[in-house]
Design goal:
Length: 263
């Protein structure tokens, strides 16, 4: 009798484990269905990173990535709802389920690939190295060794600066990094050429300059939590449609003054 009871407990436990696993997989696979049923996809973005994600003069959230998010939502047949947060908090919000994805010039690096799956790339941009206008010591990335680079500590640009031997000075935004550069509290800062270009167009008298550009481009993708293949494929289909219609290219020209949607 005891042996039979133990056997029943073992079978029941195994069934529970399988059921839990199945429920977990289903919950993960059904994220697209949940989004469609709610009629809303929740997107994390900074809101302080022009021209990708910022507030215009009237206080409205806009930017290349924001508008891409809205168009993806349209293709999915839902509304886009944005949650603004600092870069360091965006992926934590995604991990907790507070947002469905992050659209904010996200690069598909190896560390993120351990936790997320990615859409196809939708932009290809060069990185740039910015220094003060009178700086003659830093003329290329190799000159960063031992220099202070103002960077978000969890960003790909920070990792790139560190790979050249730079000592990172933590910041929350690109504007803050340029402020440290202008005040002399940092020697350099790295970011996308498009972001720096937009800053220089808006601040033509800023005492900074672009010293160098990367030879290769980095691409932006839309991340989803692991296991959400249906959502990832739907986002890919949406990006395909936006490319075919020319809307993706039009947004790039509008916010960057160039088409960065083609490799």
């Amino acid at each position: 009798m005891m042996k039979m009871w133990k056997k029943m407990i073992a079978l029941f436990s195994a069934a529970c484990v399988l059921a839990a696993c199945g429920a977990s997989d289903t919950a993960s696979d059904d994220q697209l269905t949940q989004i469609q049923e709610k009629g809303v996809i929740v997107i994390g973005t900074e809101g302080t990173y022009a021209p990708n994600s910022y507030h215009d003069e009237e206080g409205n959230l806009t930017g290349f990535d924001v508008e891409v998010g809205r168009l993806i939502a349209r293709e999915l047949g839902v509304e886009a709802q944005f949650v603004e947060s600092s870069w360091d908090s965006l992926f934590a919000a995604m991990d907790s389920g507070r947002v469905d994805t992050v659209i904010n010039e996200v690069e598909a690096d190896e560390e993120r690939a351990e936790k997320y799956d990615f859409s196809q790339p939708y932009t290809y941009v060069h990185g740039a190295l910015m220094v003060s206008s009178d700086n003659t010591d830093i003329q290329g990335f190799a000159d960063l060794d031992g220099m202070r680079a103002a960077q978000n500590l969890t960003s790909s640009w920070g990792a790139l600066a560190e790979s050249y031997g730079a000592q990172l000075v933590g910041v929350d935004s690109m504007d803050q990094s340029i402020q440290l550069l202008e005040s002399g509290r940092a020697d350099a800062t790295l970011n996308s050429e498009t972001a720096f270009g937009d800053y220089l167009r808006k601040h033509p008298d800023a005492p900074v300059k672009i010293a160098a550009r990367t030879e290769t481009t980095t691409s932006s993708v839309v991340p989803v939590r692991k296991g959400n293949e249906a959502l990832r494929e739907a986002i890919d289909d949406a990006l395909d449609a936006l490319r075919a219609s020319g809307e993706l290219s039009e947004l790039s020209q509008r916010f960057f003054g160039m088409d960065v949607t083609q490799e």
